[in-house]
Design a protein that fits this description.
The chain is mainly α. The chain contains nine helices and eleven strands. It is an enzyme of class 2 (transferase).
């Protein structure tokens, strides 16, 4: 990175005669560079959010679970505990998702990272380039890091392009800046192409409200797998990641909606095995701040009255259970 900055300074001094043009180029360059470093730093230092102790088995149930030798009996213990938790996704076989390593019931969209050796809320992937898990607490920062790194490369390639053309047409002054022009253009171009593909993919994931894990393996609900289970519509999907204040979308400041434990869904039928889950308070620590909030707060905030207009035309009791957020209060009919 230091070499790239030195090359840019040498290039501007040797090839750009207009002082005002040099100043403008350097100001814009440093704006993109600052935003790139800021978002990159936030992605690195943001500690991955993990499930709270509410998702751990009580001591008595944990002892019973460890003593049981049959998976069926262990599942019955997990089902009994999960009745009081806002957990609606299952394994591929329909079992409760339990992490033997962390010894807790996994919240929806939570997965265990073998590299970090911990369960991460809304885990997307473990990124070696930032040496951190990308998940609920820093996914916005990661997307902004890709965006600003791409803009950084585009800006460098665009400002060097005219001098790159002069280089090939032998109209560039015979100075050591020739090497700088060639090097900067090709390096910026190659990085731009590679980052563009990754950035486009994650924009697609944001628009679909999926993680990288969910894109390869659809989340499983009690009524089966549904790759669009968490899709709320493009704008609401973007709002879940970037927040409802558009002025903060381009800044690497935490503004994502929700608590990381429960998520509104596109279509989930009431779970007959689920007990009462009503406004449990779980403390979620994100970006250095502990924020206790009701589990249903983010769902009610996201799901407006116009979310599913077609489904709301019929308000008969038979259709009340359709298109409800996953954190609603549900009574066992039996």
């Amino acid at each position: 990175m230091g070499l790239l900055i030195d090359l840019c300074f040498f290039l501007s001094a040797d090839t750009i005669a207009n002082t005002e043009e040099q100043v403008i180029y350097l100001i814009v360059f440093h704006v993109f560079f600052f935003m790139f470093i800021w978002s990159y730093w936030k992605t690195i230092i943001s500690k991955p959010a993990s499930p709270s102790k509410e998702f751990c088995l009580p001591k008595a149930d944990k002892e019973l679970y460890e003593k049981e030798e049959f998976p069926e009996a262990q599942q019955e213990i997990l089902k009994r505990v999960a009745r009081n938790l806002p957990v609606y996704t299952r394994t591929g076989s329909g079992a409760i998702r339990y992490c033997d390593r962390c010894q807790l019931i996994k919240p929806d969209r939570c997965h265990h990272c073998s590299t970090c050796d911990r369960c991460v809320l809304k885990m997307d992937h473990h990124c070696p380039w930032v040496n951190n898990c990308v998940g609920f607490s820093n996914y916005k920062f990661f997307v902004l890091f890709l965006a600003y790194s791409m803009l950084y490369c585009v800006y460098i390639a665009a400002t060097v392009l005219q001098y790159f053309i002069k280089f090939w047409t032998n109209h560039l002054p015979d100075t050591h800046a020739k090497f700088h022009v060639l090097f900067l253009f090709f390096v910026a171009g190659m990085f731009f192409i590679s980052i563009l593909s990754l950035f486009s993919y994650h924009l697609w994931l944001v628009g679909k409200n999926r993680t990288t894990i969910e894109a390869f393996r659809a989340p499983v609900f009690r009524n089966g797998p549904d790759k669009n289970g968490f899709t709320l519509g493009f704008l609401k999907n973007v709002t879940q990641v970037f927040g409802d204040q558009k002025k903060c979308w381009c800044l690497p400041l935490y503004s994502s909606l929700g608590d990381g434990y429960t998520f509104p869904t596109r279509l989930v039928n009431a779970d007959s095995e689920q007990g009462n889950v009503e406004h449990q308070v779980i403390k979620c620590t994100v970006d250095g701040q502990t924020n206790p909030r009701p589990l249903s707060e983010s769902q009610n905030h996201l799901l407006g009255n116009n979310m599913h207009s077609e489904e709301q035309k019929d308000s008969s009791p038979a259709n009340i259970e359709v298109c409800q957020p996953v954190s609603i209060t549900m009574e066992n009919e039996s």
